[in-house]
Amino acid sequence: GTLGCFNYWPLSGQTLVLTDTLSGVAIEQAVDSTGFFTFRNVPTGRTYRLSLKNALPPIDTFRAVSVLD
After folding, report:
1. What pTM, to 2 d.p., does this model score?
2. Sign of the CA dihedral 56, 62, 67, 69?
3. Is 32 within 8 Å of 11 (Cβ atoms)?
4. Which helix (H) or strand (E) covers residue 68, if one does?
5. Residue 63 pLDDT > 90, yes or no?
6. Would the pLDDT of 28 be above 90?
C-alpha cells in the first residue's frame, strides 16, 4: 500500500503496525521514501487493525499550501 497525507504527498519515515485483533500479535513495517509499504506472510481470514507507531507532527495546512504554491 501507500501512505500519504490529504494531498497525496508520501509520508515517509513512518512505521505502520498491523495488529491481529484476536491474538494481539503485531507486525511493524517501515514506510519508504515514496510512501510505499508492504506486509508479507499475513495470515488470511483474520481481522487486523492498521495504525501508526510514531505520531505524525502537526501539519499547519495554510503554511504548507503557501510554501508549496
Report:
1. 0.69
2. positive
3. no
4. helix 61-68
5. no
6. yes
DSSP state of 13: T
Q: Which neighbouring-strand residues pair with 16?
A: 29, 52
Q: State the pLDDT at residue 55.
A: 63
What gap in Å lies between CA 14 and CA 10, rounded to an integer? 10
Tally of CB atoms within 10 A around 27: 14
How far, in Å, CA of 54 to CA of 69, rounded?
A: 28
Task: Classify each residue of 41-59 as buried b or exposed e, where b means 16 or more C-beta atoms within 10 Å of its C-beta.
Answer: eeeeeeebeeeeeeeeeee
Band of pLDDT at residue 14, cut at 50, 70 and 90: confident
